[in-house]
Amino acid sequence: MAAAAAALLLLRRRAGGGGGGAAAVWRAQRRQRSTFDVAVVGAGIVGLASARELVRRHPSLTFAVLEKEKELAHHQSGHNSGVIHSGIYYTPGSLKAKLCVQGAALCYEYCDQKGIPYKQCGKLIVAIEQDEIPRLKALYERGLQNNVRGLKLIGAKEIQAKEPFCRGLMALDSPYTGIVNYKQVAQSYAEDFQEAGGTILTDFEVTNMEMAKESSSESADGLKYPVIVRNSKGEEIYCRHIVTCAGLYSDRLSEISGCSPEPRIVPFRGDYLVLKPEKCYMVKGNIYPVPNPRFPFLGFHFTPRMDGSVWLGPNAVLAFKREGYKLFDFSTGDFLDAVTYSGLWKLVLRNLSYGLSEMYRACFLSAQVKQLQKFIPEVTINDVLRGPSGVRAQALDSDGNLVDDFVFDGGSGDIGSRILHVRNAPSPAATSSLAIAKMIADEVKQRFEL
Length: 450
Prior knowledge:
Elements: H1 2-14, H2 20-28, E1 35-41, H3 45-57, E2 63-66, E3 83-84, H4 95-114, E4 118-119, E5 123-127, H5 133-145, E6 152-155, H6 156-162, E7 170-174, E8 178-180, H7 182-195, E9 199-201, E10 206-211, E11 227-231, E12 236-244, H8 250-256, E13 264-275, E14 286-289, E15 301-304, E16 310-313, E17 317-318, H9 332-339, H10 342-350, H11 352-363, H12 365-373, E18 384-396, E19 407-409, H13 413-416, E20 419-424, H14 429-448
Parallel strand pairs: 1-2, 1-12, 2-9, 5-14, 12-20
Antiparallel strand pairs: 3-8, 4-8, 5-7, 6-7, 10-11, 11-12, 13-16, 13-17, 13-18, 15-16, 19-20
Helix pairs in contact: 3-7, 3-14, 4-14, 11-12
């Protein structure tokens, strides 16, 4: 028996980054009840970072990551711009500000340790109109309050020295901003987790959580693993505690567990353009607009990628499916869930002209290029192609306000008291993932008395 157990553990540790090997081992053993001290739901970058931190802190406990897809980091973690943010934009004192600055430092350190390639190519936030300059200076002061490294304001000549094709009156130079392939980072977290003894179960879509009923067959010390987690195939695992990092489905998992449905998730699709390869020389680092507080989203920007390509955008339009990366992707359930939520209508009515403009630009390439030409006049419609898309899990409250900061909460009752929900973790969650993981591990230890 000891040899068999050792072999099973070795197989779990050697399972590939996608987690499929671990899932195969687990299903081969499913007649024996599978038990874990903590189950982490969601194998995006935040879930994997959290699981990695937990197993490193508590090596004597058993941990599992449950992922509904067949591969890891398949959604937001694998469909983002790849920017390592420096922490400029966020309200001083907020979790976003604190965790982004910490997380960026940890991200660079981790990539150095693991040999994961990245580029510290910097970012310019460029003012192209006079009325943007006061906002740019306020952003500079905010960045200083957030302890962002290396910030400075530069003029038009310095802008062109850094970005020869970019035009602007003034810019905020953030040399500490970088780029990385976050899917590669997430896969590395998964490998660390498995090497430490953790189990990853892919193709495990959580559809039900309930308390197990005690029976005479249980051991004398009572029910040690009282929470049953079932998937869409009727398979189940037993655990003591749950951490959910479900991104686009965070509100639904909360409801499944009997916790609050608020804040609700409304999906917004962001479509990117890409510069043709022969035109990528026009962009050296990240070029961003000055945020306009009247609009809910940031606006078009230029983002170099690790593969040498340059992404342009994204826009922001309501997605008709939570994982709808294409224009005509549609889910009746997801659509009705969004349009019957009063918070969405309040947001839409407050930003009607902005929303209509975004929809127009989504349909007409020339309208998007016009936005890009404000920064690089040489870009033409012949220089760009339609590129990939991502879907942002935007948390909304019932008053139609975008939930700006990270949100972590639990619930009440038998199951609610055993769950920690990561309710809202938008950008810069990938940058902040290792810092978020430390905070989650602290909360888990305190909340669950591990």
